[in-house]
Design a protein that fits this description.
Layout: H1 2-12, E1 18-19, E2 22-23, E3 30-32, E4 44-46, H2 49-56, H3 67-77
Antiparallel strand pairs: 1-2, 3-4
Length: 90
């Protein structure tokens, strides 16, 4: 599982300066996609770290997949305590 998390973290906090083919200064997107043995969270893109941190905790949004990896990413990059009862409403 640690290999998976290491390969996911570069995607987790990808600072992107291109939106719809145009360069945009100071615009950041945060994204992640994590996979389990037989599942995937799907790819999720956010415009704020707060939104990403909230959605890492949403079991339904993440297809009930990769909870341990999502929790590790949360602990490494977000404030507060990981709580799977959070609903993201993305």
């Amino acid at each position: 599982m640690k290999k998976l998390l290491v390969s996911v973290l570069p995607l987790l906090f990808c600072a992107c300066n291109e939106i719809a083919g145009e360069n945009v200064t100071n615009s950041f997107n945060y994204s992640y996609e994590m996979n389990g043995p037989d599942c995937s969270t799907g790819r999720h893109v956010f415009y704020s770290l707060t939104e990403l941190c909230r959605c890492l905790q949403d079991e339904e949004l993440n297809n009930f997949c990769a909870r341990q990896d999502r929790q590790s990413a949360f602990v490494s990059h977000c404030d507060g305590q990981f709580n799977i009862a959070i609903a993201c409403y993305k």
